[in-house]
Specification:
With 1039 residues, the chain is an alpha/beta fold. The protein has 48 helices and 16 strands. Helices cover 64% and strands 7% of the residues.
Length: 1039
């Protein structure tokens, strides 16, 4: 029959196909209700384009394995090239493509992907796209996927991967679907695809088109009934043709026109004999295509009778026959016949079809396990659960081999519901639930997986089955969770299951013990003390078993228990063993995990060897190829960019990785993003960004408030918000939990606390933190498994030592930190450490080197709170946004010296310009001077007592130093036998008086023009034999 109507849709479809033929890939989606003419339109366009076509049609209700239409389309296209050529086209992709086309397995074994589910799935998709591209480059081609409303999730996922329009590939991918029969997931996917390509919705034919179709079907005489047919059919092409054929049979428009499609179908079926109708009912339950030997057994007929009855149905227009076999004339026929089946007959037919398909399978005939699983599940009320469970597992295994995990879960769920409906044995239900939960987790649906595993947990408990409860608990633990969210329920389940199996010495006991140790270590700080002995028990069990997989799991638990501050060197060996054992077990995912943990431990230990280890991990992650490992690799590349100081690149990588993590449902993606944004904000030092990040950190880490507020405290003070930093720091101290935490997060939040305490001049907290940091000064802070580098612990030890006036310690720690940061290539942190060293020793050149490196990295110059700089004879003084200029004044130079070394005592002789000595005799100390010394000694005694009472060791040391200096000076001035000595003008006492006067005059002059800065200096500068700038509210100075 000639093609009628649809001029505009046909023109659009042809334009897209012709564009593809010219070398620009095209995606076209044709939608409309059943029978509206989608397939006819696509067929007409393909015929006019005269290009090779691979046409695959989806089958409904799980009647075919996953990827079915792709398998059919690819087989058609490859068969057209000839068997030898097909293998050359498949080339190295044959092992992957054999999942869809098993005949290619002759050329290469199907790839073995145990433990690499997502990786293998991606490789399959990539191989399919490559083979299509090779074929298309030989000659432009069309791939048609029909009836996508019945497509399995994997078919749609592969379509989404392959259908990339506007690529320079001469390939047109055309899909067709019933828009009113889509599942929610399919509707979402097809909506996204429609935006990528060309969407062509089909509706009913208009009256002129209906007239042309009626004439083409029934001849010119039928044209007079076209208006009536249009009214009755709504322009639906299938109904138009069926009604027109009735006219062709000589019927008039009155009595002969049925009102709906079902009436048409029922009328056609009614023409058949009872045996013919029985055959058709069985065929409708089986699917569109007839399987004669199975139908013969089901209907208890011989082959000849089946063929004769099929011929009758063809003549009645219910079946059609072509070179590929016999099938229903239209989906409407099958759907209507199946819907009319009474329930008892339906059940009996499902049972007989199951048995017949099993017999065919036993004879070596082709049987899709999915078909058997569907019929067996429907027959459970009559046949019992055994066949349903058996075939559901076979079908699910096949889908797993094709990496179609959603489809595997669907097979198991259908069997599980059927078994549950007849009240079958609970143990079978638990096993099905556990298998379904695993499949749903692998399909990327952790919520659904948790729901079925919770059901399994309750059922296994009711059975008192310890083994099954253990498997359920492990399944729940593997689902993962967002960082810092309590997992008491998971811990309780693991604990209960482990206790029930304690002493059995089995692999399951070892795995449960290892899983429990990890959960306690990471998510239950209050029970973290239990983790170590549990990990040791698990490892001992594993060493007694000849099971590399179990040993790998137990080594991982041991590693995580050692994942505490200062133990990086121990973890390197364990992490390396994890990688070796995993490689021996063929577990590529665990092997990659071992490599990442090795790189992380090396970085934490300050070893530059972390870089080659990380490169090895990134290569392994790329080989795995699965979305989760791509996400892991992208986040670690972002971490490396942060460490190197490539901040623009880091920002882009953080955003891209976060988007990928959200797309694949990675539970910890938000935490990783937050952790890396902290590092980015710290490096860029933009006040607004720092404040916003601090606020977001507190909102995000609700489960660990001490950690959140410690990080926020450091960010606030770096932004210059000292009050906000003080509040955050007080919150951390009041919570107190930070003192008990020795996890891998310790360096992160203690670094934030140290930064805040140093700027705020919180000497007691600095004194409390310094020994903790000094003890681990040989290691570095790393957030998570190489999520974000947070600097050498020696850096913060040096900063705190400087605040406390322990200059030698500060130099030593900061020198160590500088060495580590330079050998790691941690450029941002090298700038940080050099600036800290510059504050200790302005003349050493660290400030200039820090500024040059910061400029190379594009970092902003440090924003100083205050400024005291000499320009010729004029001094510029600034505080916040206010500034002034002062004339020559010796005390300003003295003050600049003190400001350059906050927290350090400077002797007056180092400040005063002594000049020529006045040798005129006179008592070094007169009565007034001696009285002043005694008053100062009394004050020092009081201050020393206060320092001891407050356990302020730094203040105590400073008082001791000054007191000893005063006593020594008194002894020197008194001379032998208490006789007063004389000395010229170059005396300590005269120097003290001169320097004190100069400093006070300078501060008075500053206070007159900048009162707030003057008040700050009055609080912070002490004078005497030694002078000191020791601010309670620390400022950054430009000097």
């Amino acid at each position: 029959m000639a093609f009628v109507g649809r001029a505009r849709p046909l023109a659009r479809l042809l334009a897209a196909v012709e564009g593809a033929a010219a070398g620009r890939a095209a995606l076209v989606l044709v939608s409309g209700e059943a029978g509206i003419g989608k397939s006819t339109l696509i067929g007409e366009a393909a015929a006019r384009a005269d290009l090779p076509v691979g046409w695959g049609t989806c089958r409904d209700a799980g009647r075919a394995p996953a990827f079915w239409p792709w398998s059919v389309a690819l087989r058609t296209l490859l068969d057209a090239t000839g068997p030898d050529d097909a293998r050359s086209v498949a080339a190295d992709d044959a092992p992957e493509l054999a999942r869809l086309l098993p005949e290619l397995a002759d050329a290469a074994a199907i790839a073995d992907d145990a433990g690499q589910t997502e990786a293998a799935r991606l490789r399959l998709f990539d191989a399919t796209a490559r083979v299509l591209e090779r074929l298309a480059r030989r000659r432009p081609l069309i791939v048609v996927l029909d009836d996508l409303q019945w497509a399995d999730p994997s078919t749609l996922a592969l379509l989404e991967f392959v259908a990339q329009p506007h690529r320079p590939v001469p390939l047109a991918v055309v899909g067709a679907y019933r828009h009113d029969e889509l599942t929610e997931d399919a509707a979402r996917t097809l909506a996204v695809l429609a935006r990528r390509g060309e969407a062509i919705p089909l509706r009913g034919l208009d009256p002129p088109e209906v007239h042309d179709l009626v004439v083409a079907t029934a001849g010119e005489t039928g044209g007079r009934w076209a208006a009536d047919i249009h009214r009755r059919s709504g322009g639906h092409p299938f109904l138009v043709c069926q009604l027109a054929e009735l006219l062709d049979d000589g019927a008039g428009p009155g009595a002969a026109l049925p009102p709906a499609a079902q009436d048409l179908v029922r009328g056609r079926v009614a023409r058949l004999s009872p045996s013919g109708r029985a055959l058709l009912r069985a065929a409708a339950l089986m699917g569109n295509e007839l399987v004669p030997d199975v139908l013969a057994e089901v209907c208890e007929l011989d082959a000849a009778m089946v063929a004769a009855l099929a011929d009758d149905a063809v003549r009645a227009g219910v079946l059609v026959r072509d070179g590929s076999g016999t099938r229903m004339a239209h989906d409407l026929f099958r759907e209507t016949v199946a819907a009319d089946l009474p329930a008892p007959e339906r059940l009996a037919l499902h049972r007989r079809i199951t048995e017949a398909l099993e017999h065919r399978h036993a004879r070596g005939g082709a049987v899709a396990p999915a078909d058997l699983a569907r019929h067996a599940a429907a027959a459970v009320p009559l046949a019992g659960p055994d066949a349903a469970v058996r075939w559901a597992r076979v079908a699910a295994a096949g889908e797993r081999a094709r990496l179609a995990f959603a489809e595997a879960a669907a097979h198991l769920a259908r069997a599980r519901r059927a078994v549950e409906d007849v009240g079958a044995a609970g143990a079978v239900l638990v096993d099905l639930l556990v298998e379904e939960g695993d499949a749903r987790a692998r399909a990327g649906d952790p919520g659904a997986a948790r729901a079925v595993l919770d059901d399994a947990w309750g059922r296994a408990g009711a059975l008192g089955d310890a083994q099954r409860r253990g498997h359920v608990a492990l399944g729940v633990q593997r689902l993962g969770a967002r960082f810092a969210m309590p997992r008491e329920d998971v811990v309780a389940a693991l604990d209960e299951a482990r206790s029930a199996l304690h002493g059995t010495g089995t692999a399951l006991e070892a795995q449960l013990t290892a899983a429990l140790a990890r959960e306690l270590q990471h998510s239950v700080p209050g029970q973290r003390h239990r983790a170590r002995p549990l990990s040791e028990r698990a490892l001992a069990l594993a060493h007694d078993l000849d099971d590399p997989a179990t040993l790998g799991a137990c080594l991982l638990a041991r590693h995580d228990v050692l994942w505490t501050v200062g133990r990086a060197h121990e973890r390197v060996a364990v992490a390396r063993e994890i990688a070796v054992v995993a490689a021996r077990a063929g577990d590529a995912e665990r092997h990659a995990e071992g490599l990442l943990l090795t790189a992380n431990a090396l970085l934490e230990g300050g070893s530059p060897a972390f870089r080659p280890a990380l490169e090895e991990y990134l290569a392994a992650a790329e080989r795995l190829g699965q979305p989760r490992h791509r996400y892991m690799a992208r986040t670690r590349e972002a971490a490396l960019a942060l460490l190197d100081g490539r901040l623009g690149e880091a920002e882009e990588r953080i955003a891209a990785a976060a988007a990928l993590g959200e797309r694949i449902g990675e539970p910890d993606a938000g935490n990783v993003r937050m952790s890396q944004l902290l590092g980015l904000a710290w490096a860029r030092s933009d006040p607004e960004e720092l404040r916003a990040t601090a606020r977001e950190a507190v909102r995000w880490w609700v489960g660990v408030p001490s950690h959140a507020h410690a990080v926020a405290a450091g960010l606030h003070v770096r932004a210059g918000d000292l009050d906000a930093g003080r509040r955050a720091l007080d919150t951390v101290v009041s919570l107190g939990a930070w003192r008990e935490d020795s996890s891998y997060l310790w360096s992160v939040f203690v670094g934030g606390m140290a930064a805040a305490a140093a700027v705020l001049g919180d000497r007691p907290l600095c004194a409390e933190l310094l020994p903790e940091l000094a003890a681990v000064a040989g290691t570095c802070g790393v957030n998570g498994a190489l999520v974000c580098f947070t600097g050498s612990n020696a850096h913060w030890a040096g900063v705190l030592a400087a605040v406390l006036g322990r200059t030698d310690d500060a130099h030593r720690h900061l020198g160590q930190a500088l060495h580590v940061h330079r050998q790691l290539g941690a450029a941002v942190w090298e700038v940080e450490t050099r600036r800290a060293l510059a504050a200790l020793d302005p003349a050493a050149g660290h400030a200039e080197q820090a500024d040059r490196l910061a400029a190379d990295l594009g970092l902003p110059a440090p924003a100083a709170d205050a400024e005291l700089r000499r320009d010729g004879d004029v001094w510029r003084v600034r505080y916040r946004d206010a500034s002034a200029h002062l004339g020559p004044l010796k005390g300003l130079a003295d003050l600049a010296t003190l400001l350059a070394s906050p927290g350090r005592d400077v002797h007056v002789l180092d400040l005063v310009d002594a000049g020529p000595h006045d040798r005129a005799s006179g008592p070094l100390l007169d009565a007034t001077g001696a009285a002043a010394y005694r008053r100062r000694l009394a004050e020092m005694d009081e201050e020393l007592a206060e320092a001891r009472a407050a356990r302020d060791t730094a203040r105590e040391e400073r008082c001791d130093t000054e007191r000893a200096a005063l006593l020594a000076e008194l002894a020197r001035a008194a001379g032998l036998a208490g006789r007063a000595r004389t000395l010229g003008s170059s005396t300590v006492e005269r120097a003290r008086k001169a320097v004190s006067g100069r400093l006070r005059e300078a501060m008075s002059r500053i206070g007159a023009v900048l009162p707030e800065l003057g008040a700050h200096l009055d609080r912070s500068v002490t004078t005497g034999t030694t002078c000191r700038y020791d601010p309670p509210d620390r400022l950054t100075w430009r000097l």
